[in-house]
């Protein structure tokens, strides 16, 4: 069974299937020049190119595509010029004519596209992601209930998706990227 979302994982868990989990949170590697699970963060600094535009982080890509989705070219330009992912995120919250329902329809695909570009364009990042094997990637953010699980890495419920407080959309997007890398034989 391929796990693509929280519902799939919860169902498999209820059926007694066992998984290995890899929690991550934060964008700063433990040491310089070391690839570790910080690469899974949307804020991890690694340039990638999509349609001749250089994005310094996946967060920049996500916020730029959000601005494009709602035709806010003024904010889009500011996002593309921003230097830090927090600045891009803050600008993304200022998008004119934002419609939450439309965003919900597109957000997972946009984050998949960002991470596909980031991991497929960098051999070291790709190798690290592929080396996670079949593990369930878990954004163990105690403050994010959309992209993370709403629980910290040291939570007793980390390996019980029935107890998660969030959707883990980033973790599942990364797992989809991993699956596509394997299927496309980009390894």
Automatic annotation (TrEMBL):
Q: Which residues form the NADAR domain?
A: 34-181
Superkingdom? Bacteria
Q: Which InterPro entries match?
A: NADAR, YbiA-like_sf
Give the reactions, separated by semicolons, that this protein catalyses.
2,5-diamino-6-hydroxy-4-(5-phosphoribosylamino)-pyrimidine + H2O = 2,5,6-triamino-4-hydroxypyrimidine + D-ribose 5-phosphate; 5-amino-6-(5-phospho-D-ribosylamino)uracil + H2O = 5,6-diaminouracil + D-ribose 5-phosphate
Instruction: List the CDD domains.
Output: NADAR
Coiled-coil positions: none
- What Pfam family does this protein match (any one)? NADAR
Protein name, as recorded: Swarming motility protein ybiA
Q: Which organism is it from?
A: Alysiella crassa
């Amino acid at each position: 069974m391929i796990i693509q979302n929280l519902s799939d994982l919860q169902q498999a868990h209820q059926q007694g299937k066992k998984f290995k989990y890899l929690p991550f949170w934060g964008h700063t590697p433990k040491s310089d020049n070391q690839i570790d699970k910080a690469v899974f963060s949307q804020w991890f600094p690694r340039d990638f190119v999509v349609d001749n535009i250089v994005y310094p982080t996946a967060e920049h890509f996500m916020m730029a595509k959000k601005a494009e989705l709602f035709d806010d070219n003024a904010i889009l330009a500011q996002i593309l010029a921003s230097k830090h992912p927090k600045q891009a995120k803050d600008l993304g919250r200022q998008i004119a004519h934002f419609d939450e329902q439309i965003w919900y329809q597109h957000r997972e695909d946009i984050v998949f596209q960002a991470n596909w570009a980031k991991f497929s364009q960098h051999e070291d990042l790709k190798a690290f992601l592929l080396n996670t094997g079949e593990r369930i990637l878990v954004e163990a953010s105690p403050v994010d209930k959309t992209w993370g699980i709403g629980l910290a890495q040291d939570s007793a419920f980390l390996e019980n998706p029935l107890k998660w407080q969030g959707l883990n959309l980033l973790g599942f997007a990364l797992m989809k990227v991993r699956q596509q890398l394997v299927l496309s034989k980009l390894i």
